Amino acid sequence: MKFAFFTHVPWPEGTEPAQILAETTEQIQYAEELGFVSAWLAEHHFTRYSMVPSSLILATHLAARTSKIRLGTAVLVSPLHNPMRLAEDAAMLDLVSNGRLDVGFGRGSGGYEYYGYGLDPAESAERFQDSIKIVQGLWTTPGFSYESRFNKLDDINLVPPPLQQPHPPIYIAATRTPATLEFLISTGHNLCIAVVQDTADALALCHRFVELSAAAGDHRPMSEIPFFRYFYVAETEEQARRDTEDRINWVADIMQWRRQIDTGSEVYRRMDDWRRQRTQLPDSYDYLSVNRAVIGTPDQCVAQIKELQAHGIDYFGCNFDFGGMSRDKVMRSMELFSQEVMPRLG
Fold first, then answer.
1. Which of 46, 60, 157 is nearest to 100 (CA)?
2. Given pLDDT bands bounded at 50, 70 and 90, which one contains residue 333?
3. Is residue 224 predicted with pLDDT exceeding 90?
4. Which of 97, 112, 182, 222 has fewest C-beta within 10 Å?
5. pTM over 0.85
6. Please, what sign has the CA dihedral across residues 139, 142, 143, 148?
7. What per-residue string of b and e applies to 218-241 under the rule 16 or more CB within 10 Å gives b?
8. What is the pLDDT of residue 299?
């Protein structure tokens, strides 16, 4: 089984961005030392949920401080970018990382991110497909030309080209939108599974993807799908809950909160004020810890991951630092995972 590290790089109140980035770098260097094959970075805008508006910049920083671990984007919100610039920056990163780049694309989840960029969220699907076609075309085609409602390229040559040929691996995040899954199948790219999907729904999507891929003659295996979950392992079940409950609740709260905001964001507002004024509670810790996470003792975590293996999942991604978990707890969970969980999963 392959293991991946994943982080949103959350920015809870009372913490400093520079310290968070230093700790994220330390965690990914440690993940490389422990034998993780990849580290994946989210992209979000205008929110404490994730303080990384440019995962390619952070991945370039990490490329200079690691040597073996692959660096992935989960995901680049490509409709918010100029696709030519995105193709150039990603190709440059592929070169400086010596071909260690995996590129995940997605449409994003925050309406206020689109409004902040002056874009209509209703156009996101069309812009999303457009951007991926352009990026891949520039990576692979000399004198690339393309015209659509949003972009026009005439005889463009990408300089420099990416190191990996024909291009860095492309992954696409899909949830419940049939159009995204259909596009994914038609382009022959791979699926990646985000932590925001319930495990049962995510597994059903994986099986559907494999079936449709086989029907299209592409035969993409389940084993190559990065499957990300919130993850925490502790010596006892009680400690696991004690260490994670408020952090999972913070994630649930901020996800609910930011969905209510069309313009601006929650960054300079108080979460306690939001908690007092809301009329509906988000999903509970008990629900999220079962349906979107693997949390518990080493034995419990091994059993849960083996259940995923039984469905064909063979590329498991751990979101260790969710909701701003303290550095010591993240590092201890990673250490325990490497000693007590990884060896029992092959």
1. 60
2. very high
3. yes
4. 182
5. yes
6. negative
7. eebebeebbbbbbbbbbeeeeebb
8. 98
Q: Where are the beta strands (DSSP E) in the chain?
A: 2-7, 38-41, 70-77, 101-106, 144-147, 152-156, 170-173, 190-192, 227-233, 293-296, 315-319
Give the β-pairing of 170-173 and 190-192: parallel
d(CA 320, CA 247): 11
Are 6 and 315 spatial neighbours (Cβ–Cβ below 8 Å)?
Answer: no
CA distance 46 to 51: 8
89, 56 in Cβ contact below 8 A? Answer: yes
Residue 9 backbone class (left: φ over 0; alpha: ψ -120 to 50; beta: rest): left
How far is it, in rounded angstroms, from Cα 226 to Cα 38? 10
How many domains does one find in the chain?
1
* Cα 205–chain centre separation: 16
Expressed as residue numbers, the domain containing 131 is 2-344
| pLDDT tens string 246-267 | 999 999 999 999 988 877 889 9
Q: How far apart are the first and last CA of the chain?
A: 6
The structure tokens listed for 181 are 């899954």
Task: Compute the distance between CA of residue 180 and CA of residue 102 in angstroms, rounded to an integer.
Answer: 19
CATH number of the domain within which 330 lies: 3.20.20.30
Yes or no: say if 102 and 5 are a contact pair by the CB < 8 Å rule.
Answer: no
Distance, in Å, from the CA atom of 225 to the CA atom of 312, rounded to the nearest integer, reads 9
Q: Is beta strand 152-156 parallel, antiparallel or unpaired with respect to 144-147?
A: antiparallel
Instruction: Report the C-alpha gap between 254 and 112 in whole angstroms.
Output: 14
DSSP, collapsed to helix, strand or coil, labels residue 80 as helix
Which DSSP letter does residue 78 get?
G
Both tokens of 8, joined, read: 């949103």
pLDDT at 176 exceeding the cut of 80: no
